[in-house]
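Researcher: Batch entry, complex prediction.
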Amino acid sequence: MNSFSKKNNIENNYSPTSEIAKIAYQDFLKTYNQQLSNNEITDYIKTCMEITNSSLRAWEASDSYVKESTKLIQSFDFETLIYIGNTAKKLCAFSPMIASNYINNSALILESIDKNDLDRYTNILTNTAGSNWKDIALTNAFISVTFDLLKSIPLIHIKHVSIIAKNLSEKSHDLAITFLENFDDSLNNIHQPSRIKFIKLVNELSIVSWPDVARILETLPAALKGTSNTTTKSFLIIGYQILKNDGRKAFEDYNNAISDLINFNNLDQNWIAKFAIKINKLDSNSSVTFLQQIFILLKIYSKKDLAKWLNEGLQYMQNNPKNFDANAYFSLESTFSIQSLYRHANLELLDNKKELLEKYCKGLSGININILDVKELIDRQIGWQVSYIAATDGEHVYLPNKINIFNTKHNNFLAYKVYATHQVSRLEFGSYAYKFEYNKLLEKNSDINLKNTTEFSGITEIQKLFALFSDKKLISYLFSVVEDYRIDYLVNTKYPGISNAYNMIKKFELSKRVSPFNLPYREMLIESIIQYTLGGMRNISEELPYVDEYTQAINLLNSIKTIDGVDVNSSVEISVQIYTLLKNIPNFHSIHEIDKSKKDVVSSESISLLADSDDVSSVNLENNQETELPNLPEHLGEFKPDLVELITYVKNQQDGIESNASGFDQMQLQEFLKQTTELNVSELSEGEFSEYSNLFTNNLMDLSNAKFDKQKKLDADLENHDLHDGPISQSKYTNEKVREFFYDEWNFRSRDYKPAWCRVLEKELDFGEIDYYDQIISEHSKLIKETKRKFEYLKPESMHKEKRLEDGDEIDLDRLVDFYAEKLAGYSPLADFYSKRNKIERDVAVALLLDMSASTDEIIEKDINSSNQYNQYSGAPGTYFRWLASRNSEKSFNTNKRIIDIEKESAIVLSEALDSIGDNYGLYGFSGYGRDNVEYFVIKDIGEKLDKNVHRKIANIQPVRSTRMGPAIRHTIQKLELSSSKVKIMIMLSDGRPQDHEYGKDRTEKVYAIHDTRQALLEAKHKGITPFLLTVDKDGHDYLQEMCNDIGYEVVSDIDSLPERLTNLYKKISVK
Amino acid sequence: MSKKNTGHSISVEEFKLVNEPFYIPIKNEVKIFEEAYNSKIPVILKGPTGSGKTRFIEYMAWKLKKESPSSPLITVACHEDLTASDLVGRYLIEDQTTKWIDGPITRAARIGAICYLDEVVEARKDTTVLIHPLTDYRRLLPIEKKGELIEAPDGFMLVLSYNPGYQSITKDLKQSTRQRFVSIEFDYPPEETEAKIIAKESGCSTKIAASLALLAIKVRNLREYGLSEGVSTRLLIYAGSLIKKGVKPIEACISTIVWSLTDERELQDSIEELVRSIFTE
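Model: Structure tokens for the complex:
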């Protein structure tokens, strides 16, 4: 058969199914009959047939093939056409649908890939395809997105996409489809060169943490959007490593952390990436902690400072990888790290200098000054609104939480010192001691046009003064300027040592100010005066407008230096005079071109008007602008004499200092608010004003009642506090009920303390039943009596005579006779015939620390098998039966008792016994949940009397929550340290191992808590306190050995005997 | 006070105050002491360390006993092992025999000197047994071991000093003792007076002395931070002396005041900042 006939033959054997396909097929054959060789035609038809025959519904695929053929051969070549046909044939084996889809998309896809890559593409498809419906749908979806994907990534990478889709479809088909549909969008947010890294990461994610894929595809590219290519790449590498090495949780933290990246510029982002990748290379987990911390740190510290700190950490990581806990370092959960950061940084933090400054201020002024973060003042909502950097309300000095204006730490500290000195000096030099005297004011300023009145409105002294002026804002402003100048002068005269620091800061403030010469005249003059007070404006040209007024104002200011006994009244007088001066100056803009004659006219006119009305704002002249008062130099802080006077007044009233003062009512306070120039209430509407005034009044009253919702704040703080935040911020609440203390916690991994890690909240225990104590006393009367008797024996040991001394108070006659005898006999005896009576005073302080964890709520299981009772007895054999009898009698009472009940009873027995010998003792309980909330209950403080109140508190000892022993021990140490006793003992009574929320790496880790507790016990030992642990946990031996090492402990196997054991034990420890 | 310190020893009785000790009266203490002396009433000097108690008693001894041929003043620094026999005297063995040696209080009672028991609460309680008969109308010193009674001459006077600030409650003076004495309270002198004292004693400039006196007030404001005593005039004089000799004021103050007052780092820093505010580099 020749090839032609063969061709015809085959032609007849094949026909497409659909009509459209038939037409397309005929068209193709007609068109290419001439162009293609017979063999080629044959091959083509064969291919069509093979596709049709390859599976049941394969005619669909061959129809598609036929339909696409013309397009394919036109765009490419015959070879390609056949190739696609063959591939389609293979795909039909999975599903004709896949094959059709493949054929339909081929022309499009072939535009993006090289012909030589067709094999690769085919491979990807055959690897992806499958015969179940899910695989078919997935492959189809894949084919559909391939064209778009090819715009983003080359074909070689597309393979990975298919793998990811495959991975995901094994878990969730829908997820895989969604992934394919959205992946291209995600890719488009990533720089082209980094995309492969992204794919790699998503691939890893699909294995490690598939449910997160959809979310990460949204958040991660969003976080990286806008970063440079290298940064993106670095972060993707880091993410991949974290995912691979540290798993899902760490990656989650990483992803959350870098969502902050968008808030930084490219430079910062690169910088972060640079360090992150360095850390990541050494330890991927530490790079997570680094990223969690660095964004916060960048807001506080400069990059330069941080780089030094980070490099130090990196160096330790490299040199000492085994012994260096990089995680603790980069999360600042280590004292070493914090110190290192502080050492490298130029800035100074208020937290670090607060106590020093408090003492410094106290020294300077003699007043007890509390230093607080200026933010707190604003939080108080008593009038301070704008975030000034310093202020005082009479008993607190408010300072910024960090200062970073100079390039050395010392200079930044000096800035703190200047701020604090200035605020305190206001108190020292009486800035708030103004007494309003109208006649005196009038007498000294007869030339000023004061409002002539005999009724003085205004609640405070300073308000009465300001009320006399039409422009209250201006007079108040000038008073601030003059008064600050006075303080500045007095400080620098009295404390010349601080002058340099003052000048440094004034120079800095001066550098921030604008040139006065572009301002309207009056503002120009005011600004010039301010700059003069900062040491500027010394060489003024004669041509300065209003140079005379300026000189006059400066002379007035400087008269402060010549007034004998200059005080706040002098400032008032001077500011009144400057006010008069300034009032006569119109507030034109100096650049307004006004010809001379006109200017003169306007000036004289305005002055005459001024004289009439004393109100410049009513001078409604063209060009005359309302005076905008320039900002006062920052280092002076906010001066609010009016508010301070009010606060002091209200406080004194509350304290009963000014008993004749009638209380402020709401009306008066509203009046105050209306009058004062220190609050911006003038813009408020009626409703807003009344709301504000209520708030103000309440806050003010609270403040003066010295509670200021501290408890509320504390509670809110507790709720909001994120436990991952690093050291707890050191804010001290001095509430009567709850007192806060901060303690470090020992991290045995980094062998370093986590600074200020735990917050102990010391509370008084509430009262319980009245009768409980007496009930227990009568229940245990026998034991108590016995114990008391035993304890009595402790006393006589207190006098002790030392003999055979070479020097002493008394002569031991017998020894003296011996001495003489021996001497006469020719020996050379020692002259040791003196004796001395040493009085050893029993001087013991003991703290009994009770575990109040929830587990103490358990009811004690009775040990029915009492055959081994003898084993528990440790006394003399002769008294065994007596012991047994007393024990049994006790047991009969102990039905259904909980561990906590026994603890309480022990506490009572011990208290009674201790009281009888007069040892100092304290009873404390602890519990809590989390490091932020370690509750420490004071039942009886050392030195407190054992009275009815204590009885009732003991009755109220109850199981609460967890057992974080470390901070409780540390707090007890602090309590014992306050006592002056020579022997200090701490006995801790517990029912199990230390455990608490996040007291260890995870829930199951026990070793961290044990190490911290052990460290706390060692701290006690180092401070001369004898710690002792008593546990009723039968398994206690396991961990106590590790926890206590050489510290005394005992496991009380028979809980009922606890009261007795405790007292015996006490006797043993305290006498040693 | 003999000005030349040559190292040779003299007996207590020979000791004489040659020059007038420098003392600026603050209140009426001189008058009260004089009248107490004349009325044979013993005196307690109360006050913080370095507030001039010892200088005052020297001054008074000089003032009252210019004409006295023997020592005007016998001072005993009391310590916690000081017993009654240390004050009265004791038998010592010399060769084969015993020999009685008078204690300082006995010596003072014999020659009619002022006996000054410095920081008396530090001494043992049994010393009060001696003090009581000497301080009331009897003015007798019984020497039990010798069976002797010394009747104190007119010039004899017992003066105690104690510092109510830092002693613990257990070491407080008993009411029965306290109430036999006239008390004179000392506190640090007012700023100007203190400046004068510093200038005179140390020889430093009046400007430095004024700054030191100002510093003293500031540091004394810190009493409640564990500085129970504040800074004493004595320390200020030391600082003045060092400055006079050419030590930089800040350094001098740090050595004499900051480091002497406390070992607590933070408090030291605070005081140092006060120093740095007052003195220029």
